[in-house]
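seq as requested:
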Amino acid sequence: MDISIYEEKMEKSISSLESEYTAIRAGRANPRILDRIQVDYYGTPSPLQSVANISVPEARMIQIQPWESSLIKDIEKAILASDIGLTPANDGKVIRLVFPELTEDRRKELVKDVKKKGEAAKVAIRNIRRDANDAVKKEAKANEISEDEQKQMEDRIQKLTDKHIAQIDKMIDGKSDEVMTV
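C-alpha cells:
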C-alpha cells in the first residue's frame, strides 16, 4: 500500500491553513475591505476599484487615487456611509485611510482565532491518519499484508501525523507571535 496519498492530503491541510493565516492581518491595511463599497459614478453605482487606483503605501494606510478628481467627494461619502469604521482624509488629489493600532483585546481575539484554525487543521490531519490506518487494517484483514507489515505501516503513518502536527504547532506559534507583536 502506498501511503504517499495520505501524506499528500496532510500537505494540503497544511497549505489550506497557510492560506487561512494569510487572511488574518494583524493591524495592517488590507485593500479587500473596500471591495463592497460602491461610488456614484455619473448616476451609476460602481465598485470603488473601477473608478480609482487603490494602493497600500505603508503597512497601516490605504491610498485611493480617483481616475477623475471630481470623484473625491463621492468616494469620501461612500466610505463614510460604509461600515468599515475608518474616516477618510483627502488632500484634493488622493484619499488616505489610516488603520489604528490594534487594541490588546483585539489581538487576543485574533490569537484565539489563529488557535481555532490550527486545531481544525490538526483534526483534519488526525482524520487522514484514521483513514490511512483503516485502509491498512482492511488490507491486513484480507491477508494482503502480514502483521509485521501492518505494524510498520501504522508506525510510518503515525510518524507522518506527528511531523505534520508539529508543523501546525509551529505555524500557530509563529502567527500568534506576529499578531501579538505591536
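The first strand starts at residue 38 and ends at 41.
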